[in-house]
Amino acid sequence: MTAVHISIRRHRLGLLLFTTVFALLMALSIATPGRTFAAEAVPTCNPTATNGCVNGILQDADKKPIANVTLKLSGKEEATATTDAEGKWAFSVTADGEYTVTMDESVAKEHGLKAATATVEIEKNSFDKARQVVRFDKPVAASANGSGKSGSGSTASGAQSGSSASSDTAQTANGSSATANIGKRIWQQLFSGVIFGLMLGLMSVGMNLVYGTTGLSSFSHGEQVTLGGLMAYVGTQVLHWPLIPAAVFAVAIGALTGWIQNELVWAPLRRKRVGTMQQMIVTIGLSMALQYLFQFFFGGDIKGITKSIPASFTIGPVTTDAPTLISAAIAIIVIVGVTLFLYRTRLGRATRAVSDNAALASASGINVEQVVRIVWILSCGMAALSGVLLGVYLNGISWNTGATLLLLMFAAVTLGGLGTANGALVGSLIIGIVADMSSLVIPNDMRYASALAILIIVLLIRPQGLFGKQQRVG
User: pTM to 2 decimals?
Assistant: First the structure.
């Protein structure tokens, strides 16, 4: 048996083992039931797959905050909250349905409010897309154009997306209105899937570059995403920096950790000729260690990078906000920049050469170790940037956000083709759109099962992925 045949068999065996581990982990994550909680008053609420939010800022007719006012939530769940010094209040709910927030009528009259009661509706299959912002400065019947409820954005497992809806939401009165709402939701979910796919692509492209140049499937890449979001939280909420300097700080920290990882862990392992399968096991241990470090230092709650609620607006049938569009634009610019780097620069061409055949690239005079070092720095910096954008887009970041997205990243890079940067982007867009659109017909908690189903189907039909080579030799 020739060395070429042995190499092909080893590659196929490695791909089979990787796919098996991936499928088992995805099945485990889908089978694990989420925790449920009763409604409760919280200082700040961030919507997730298991809880929705009913919140607002109580202000008088002159837009001045009203503090120490008791608000009662009633509906399928009940709770009581008191406004803080800035007039802010929030409820976290776990059941869908209609909720009513009530204050004392004398308080409403004293401060010139038009209503003492407000009603909103939350759909359980869109918990992670709905933040119901209640207002008492408009009468309940003020809305004349149908439902005022809107949602924007999407999430990976446990991710949150900001949206807003005023208390003047009107209920659908006839079949044509219901049909219009369904059509609007389809467009909204498609838009959300594209946005989430772009952010997933920003994470996956870096992961695929690492695989292409080293053959390593890094299970700790999700923690680089979490690190970026948490460092942005430190910058904005602990150091009180503006968002842009905090984002630059987070990306710099992420890129620095990429360099440190390569110098202290991966380069020594490569010099000792440790196999990629053993290195992959190291990444699993590193992932677990980083997750618990994040939980130890930052706690188990969601950390908001920004505390303000952005104003939403509509573009045709889609409701969105400025942070969502800016985050998507940044993701597109970075991905295009990486593509130009790979195809228009000397270092980028060297990177593609190492990805094709590291031994031949080394024989041609390319410094393979230097290329791998730069790829690790670039990959971790992109992951950190995606963590910042995700934290802004999803209204917060938690210690395990990256871990919940990891399986989707693997699905994206495997679907697009292992080792192909552009394939990772296309795969991410497909995964993002399918996951969000599938929540229209299946429970929200099961939407990632559709992504796994697509992955399995593509591997059965085209094992190398959409843009991968039929065989990778050497």
Answer: 0.67
